[in-house]
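DNA-3-methyladenine glycosylase 2 family protein
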Amino acid sequence: MSLTRRWPLPGPYDLHRSLGVLRRGPYDPTCRATPGAVWRASRTPQGPVTLHLAQSRTDVTATAWGPGADWALDRLPALLGAEDRPEAFVAHHRLTREAHRRLPGLRLVRTGLVLESLIPAVLEQKVTSDEAYRAWRLLVRRFGEPAPGPAEGRPEGLHVMPDARGWALVPSWEWHRAGVDGKRSATVVRAARVAPRLEEAAAMALPDALARLQRVPGIGPWTAAETVQRSGGEPDAVTVGDLHLPRQVGYALTGRRDADDARMLALLEPYAGQRHRAARLILAAGPRMPRRAPRMYVRDIARL
């Protein structure tokens, strides 16, 4: 049995660009993009849910299956960005002004689910994207469950991630097989053990949410910001501690290649309250700095 809800578009809207931050690589088993639609498999407080989100010229139609269908449809507008206020953004550079004009359909989404964004962010700590995406894919498929709803007409292999207890019980050799070192796996287990407390961060003000997440050893400013950007739709949750973001922002706004976190934060200071949105606009439309530094070494710990 399925449930349906429609969300009238508030104006220009880009479903794929807005929800794209929730997708962890092209083969993410919990999120798939198809022409004009997005499929999501989530674990809500009421249980698993599969969402099919289809955009037309006037609305987004959401069809939901599973025990979490009511929960997910109740929060559909927030998920799609209805609580976001892109009109509050004031451009202070020609680049951000042009990007904001060219991307009027970009909205910051709010899932209301902390663990769903936290765990893949932990897996992305200090490794390449490909390594992190592979680990997420393998672990979700191995310890999650097939997404609810009819198998016909949806992407093959759609899965719901494990619940908190499931993450805490992943054996050490399975982390190793997925290429996840002991430091990251221990962080996931610690987070899973206090999951109810962490989930409260979705309803907290930004400083309190960041502080709550960082009480867990192994979760620092980078991981906390990446999490609340998605779970809370926070427009000011700028990411610090990233390998590439400071240089990309610095290069886009000044033409210089040597920006660090302090320099990036100084450049984004005029956007206080909207720094994450400014960074997303810069990455979406700004010039890309040529990478001259050596690429991060890919470590296959599963073979060690």
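thats it. The chain has one domain: 2-231. The chain has 15 helices and seven strands. bye
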